[in-house]
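Quick illustration, no need to memorize.
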Amino acid sequence: MAVTDEAIEKIKGMIVSGALQPGQRLPKEADLATDLGLSRNSLREAVKALSLMNILDVRQGDGTYVTSLESPLLLEALSFIVDFHRDDQVLEFLAVRRILEPAAAALAARTATPEQLAELRVVLDSAKPADGIDKLIAADVEFHRRITFATGNRILCSLLEGLSTPTMRARVWRGLTEPAALERTLAEHAAILEALEAGDAEAARAWSTVHIANVERWLASVL
């Protein structure tokens, strides 16, 4: 493992220094191993590891390339890691959402276009308690996703997209067990959207905080 770590660090160093640019093909395996003072086996293991992190792209029959290194691509690995979370960590994920989502809502209040606000209104108006929990949770996810997208910050979008999955089961559970949870969720969404439409960043931040905190409070009470 130490040898593989060394190989990873050397390839990383080439990318950070600019010796390897985004989209550039790596030298042939034998040549690169010699240049870096590595065995071909340790180089292969490093390439496998870096491809899992979307840093390298191994193309069969063509070679290995540096990816675009765009942040959303690199952050896809977060979703893979998040899939292995334990149920007792859900409150921690919600705590992170309570930090990031209000900030996203405040930013969206300044950056959202009229078209984006209109799309949010369509998502909100299409969600009804009678639709059932599955459709409402899907609408909930879409509502939050569109708010984050309206910030124009791709890194924030990727982070919150990854953090959404671990709390999905908790949201379904709450919708099935807590009286009036669905109606309360829709009311909170409406308040967030009204703040966005008014361009009121602090109100958007406050309502988003209340919205996440209510889920957090409920989950803490039943765990």
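The CA atoms of residues 83 and 165 lie 8 Å apart.
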